Amino acid sequence: MNRRIVIIQGHPDPAGNHFGHALADAYQKGAEIAGHDVKIIDVARLDFPIIRTREDWEKGEPPECIKVSQDVIAWANHLVLFYPLWLGTMPALLKGFLEQVLRPGFAIDKSKQGKAWNKKLGNRSARIVVTMGMPAFIYRWFFRAHSLRSLERNILKFCGISPVRESIIGLVEGNNNHRSRWLEKMQSLGRDSR
């Protein structure tokens, strides 16, 4: 089945020379080899303000680059988010992007009764790829992958995106064999669009 995939590159450095960029490239290559359609949103190259009020989030006019990003996400049926773990969570720029793009009217809407939210991004799956310097098992077992769980439960699934799969890649500054295995794995995940 041909999938429509959006890769959201959440590394805040626009230089694009980090391991997370190489992982995203490998995923894209695998997906395109398998015949999937792929679009990229590089958050570091977008210019948008931070949302500061509930009023702005609920009723403000999104900047043009956010509207374009919303169009790409609406087109996709599979999202892949790449980001490095910074201070135990996603970089602030990626969080700011998600707050801008996943606004009421696009990602969610209040129900007619006004008590619950309607999820508007159903029929989409996602993969979260997190890179970090520490061993992945420390993040997963000692820290319980708390920020990853929050992104999955409180952001993606809240908007209706499910299932959400994950790849936690530790020791990214490790040896080349470790990196090569992960690059191969990402290409394989891209082929399978998982």
Q: Can you describe this structure?
A:
The protein is of the alpha/beta class. The chain has a single domain (4-192), classed as Flavodoxin domain (Rossmann fold). Helix content is 40%, strand content 20%. The chain has helices at residues 19-33, 54-59, 64-75, 92-101, 136-142, 146-156, 176-192, and strands spanning 4-9, 37-42, 78-84, 108-110, 117-119, 125-131, 164-169. The strands form two sheets. The protein has a five-stranded parallel sheet, sandwiched between helices. Strands 4-5 form a two-stranded antiparallel ribbon. Strand 1 (4-9), helix 1 and strand 2 (37-42) form a beta-alpha-beta unit. The chain is globular and about 55 Å long. The two termini are 12 Å apart.
Q: What attributes does this structure have?
A:
194 residues, alpha/beta, Rossmann fold, five-stranded parallel β-sheet, two-stranded antiparallel ribbon, 7 helices
Provide a compact summary of the structure.
This protein is of the alpha/beta class and 194 residues long. The chain has 7 helices and 7 strands; from the N terminus they run βαβααβαβββααβα. It is globular and about 55 Å long.
